[in-house]
Amino acid sequence: MTHATDPALYNDDLAPIPVEKRDWTWINMATVWMGMVHNIVVYEGAAGLMALGFSAWECMEVVAVSYMVLFVAMWFNARAGTRYGIPFCVLIRSAFGPFGAQLPVVLRGFCAIFWFSVQAFAATQAIDAIVGTVWPWWNTLAMPLLGMSLHRWGALCLVWALHVWVMNHGVTRIRNFELVAGPLVIVIGAMATGWALHVGHGLGPLFAVPSRLHGSAFTLAFAEGVTGMIGMWATFAVNIPDLSRFVRSQRDQVLGQAIGLPVTALVFTPMAIITTSATVLLFGRPIWNPVELLLALNHPVVTVLGGAVIVLATLSVNVVANIMPACYDLINLAPQTLNFRRAGFLVLVLGLLFMPWLWFSEAESIYRVLDIISGLLGPVTGIMLADYFVLRRQNLVVADLYRRDGRYAGRHGWHLPAPVAFVVGGVCANIGIIIPALASVGSVSWFVGLGVAAALYLALAGRKARHA
């Protein structure tokens, strides 16, 4: 196929993976998701739900609905990746055109690198706690440098080195790493839950707290909770083809995602709530930050082992959910210069430039920015689903995705219905920011963006096709 491709749109990393080389089974897909679902952001997500006024059991209902919606979206959006062996940044060209595709690709890449940076700093805190526990002199390296102490810089370097080690041999090492990391985190989480049940003599105080929400207030908060949980994975709902392209069959990708996504989330969420219940009894308040909990327990062995688990969990989510998609997105921008390994190192450098230690003191700002980005990625998901399942009827001419003059080229590389639908859908999803009276739209922003963009795209693209 390479003789007909444009060098600006193609290299070996972006090329379709032949069927005979797609060796991921449902087990690989499930363990990858297990490794991603167990991360600090998801762990602390339960705190946000309970802060809204839900009971622990209602939190479980929010999680169940959220992850079932995500599962359905990712199940369908993954199909093209499995069928054709192509990544998100190539698949999106059928809707946006080869140059127009750079718009959602850059947006997704920005979000991936930002999340990598934030998650990596969470692991940095854990490494810092581990080393400071084993060698107390470590904590004396307190000289400030660019807003962070010298010993924290040392921990950050160690975390970045661990990411380099996992990424050094590309997708094969990532697959093998997740095969071990995903299940291991569940086992250790179960041990922590057992400890919490022992301390709390049962499910604990948080499960005994009744709901503070009723009637319309409950309905609105439930919608906000579901949208917020979806927002954590809105980025991955877009680029799931980056993973599904390695899976050998549609059955494997569906079964793997079903086990690894909603099932694992429903197991992990009560673990987080039960463990936090034990902190209420021990310290008189809920401690949702795992690193803070380890330091509060003040037991060297627990700090070291628990910190290692946090680092493992962070690595498992970062390499798949953030570094891998960011690599493909960067390669898509410069396929003649970048390959997977070079792009991986570039992601690590760009992640440092985000200076996550400064953002951590402004958590509200982080989530405000990421909520807006998630609201913009809902329209991308809607456009992708509408394009592939309705407009293209699940049939793509793959060779034309790598050409400027193919059937997906549009006008000068832009298929205009997609950018128009993307902008309108994004504005509708975030309309509450512009018009405060419509702030309630924010509680269902992902759904609004997806629905508006999909409908408008089909209306514009269908009309264009009829007049072609």
TrEMBL record:
InterPro entries (UniProt xref): Pur-cyt_permease (IPR001248), Uracil/uridine/allantoin_perm (IPR045225)
One term under GO cellular component: plasma membrane
Subcellular location: Membrane
Coiled coil regions in record: none
Membrane topology: Multi-pass membrane protein
A single MF term (Gene Ontology): nucleobase transmembrane transporter activity
The organism's place on the tree of life at top rank: Bacteria
Family: Belongs to the purine-cytosine permease (2.A.39) family.
Entry-linked PANTHER family: NCS1 FAMILY PURINE/PYRIMIDINE TRANSPORTER, PURINE-URACIL PERMEASE NCS1
Protein name: Nitrate reductase
Species assigned in the record: Neoasaia chiangmaiensis
